[in-house]
Design brief:
Keywords: Cytoplasm, Hydrolase, Metal-binding, Nucleotide-binding. The chain is α/β, with parallel strands linked by helices and 261 residues long. The chain has 6 helices and 11 strands. 41% of the residues are buried.
Amino acid sequence: MRILITNDDGINAPGLAVLEEIAHEIAGPRGEVWTVAPAFEQSGVGHCISYSRPMLVAELGPRRFAAEGSPADCVLAAIGDAMPGRPDLVLSGVNRGNNAAENVLYSGTIGAALEAALQSLPAIALSQYLGPETQDADDKFEAARRHGAEVVRALLDKAPWESSNDYRLFYNVNFPPIPAARVQGVRAATQGWRPDTVFTTEAQTAPTGRRFLWVKGGPQHRPTAPGSDAAANLEGYISVTPMRADLTAHDQIDTLARVFA
């Protein structure tokens, strides 16, 4: 198996090293693991692509490249230039912090998996929830490191991977913010919604007198509805959410049709 790995935390991020371990375990001794990751951190860029400017891609070693672009750019760079032939699987992460609930819409980690799915490639995004029990740990990615390959293998062997003319499925995996030994299991979950958790801005004046705005995230440890991703993670479970690029609110189509009847 030939696996492409990428992330949004950057080529030198510790979570990418964890993902490389997971990928090598899945690929096996005869497989290949290719890395094409952003040269610098690209958190929060979502599914952005560098449509209006070129990107510099540097080869750092065998099957290892850094791109001055977004995570979605990295997928495009890999399949269009860096790799001879297409990968069998794309893994994105392991993100430092959760990509549950509203974070899904901003995440470059998700953006890479989404781009892979749009390119008709099987893709999985993996993220490590952080919290009080992991912030002082020697290995903040322990849960992902210990359980990541098992979850990926189960998805590859048993989960649906249809590739019809519709938007292709991809999977969003979040590991709970607890030590690996205390992980309760794996739950299929919907994307949640954290009430009152939105991004805001905070102003700061530099010594030069210039005014800058910092973007701040909201509280990450408010549980979402039962059966959704963050709720499962805060209960000690790994959440797995099937996703597609289709943003249509299908439950409102009939109502909207009556409005314009």
